[in-house]
Amino acid sequence: MNSNITTIVSAASFALALSMAAPTLADERKVETGTAIASGGEPIDTLKFINPPGLYDPRPNAYSHLAVFPAGWRMILPAGQGGENAKGELSPSFSIQLRQALDNTETVLAAAGAKMSDVAKFNLLIVDHSDEKFSDVRKEFDRVWGDTKPAWTLIPVPALALKGMLVEIDVIAVVPR
Length: 177
Description:
Layout: E1 6-10, H1 14-19, E2 21-22, E3 27-29, E4 36-38, E5 48-50, E6 66-70, E7 74-76, E8 81-82, H2 94-111, E9 119-127, H3 131-145, E10 151-157, E11 167-175
Parallel strand pairs: 9-10
Antiparallel strand pairs: 1-2, 1-6, 3-4, 5-6, 7-11, 8-11, 9-11
Helix pairs in contact: 2-3
């Protein structure tokens, strides 16, 4: 594969994105400011989060519309991480499980040489999703990612794999080879 090809990851269709590539990104946007940056035909050289013109600003909801990274980067695909501690115990509190799931995700990524800032895309599964839980999500994501949020999809579910499990995080991280 040509090393100048950029892989595109979107919340809409990761499977389709794996088969798509573009050598450059002509209309890039900074997530922090929403200000357009002309790429000048230069290839993408790092993980970038983009909110394209014509779509609403997702930052108040703690995500970005698009993540792009250079072709040839190593993809890290850990199993979904829940809110259980090292002893396998689950707190009855959603916010405690969410923080633990994020900590568990950080631990599994570290085992592959990655960090939370390397997360390009993820799915967040929440049992009995509510506005209160979404408020907790925004607070925790601000703590973990600051102003630059990955592309992600929230999936409300009736139940997860373990009894009492309230949240699961399924991430895709990318790092240079």
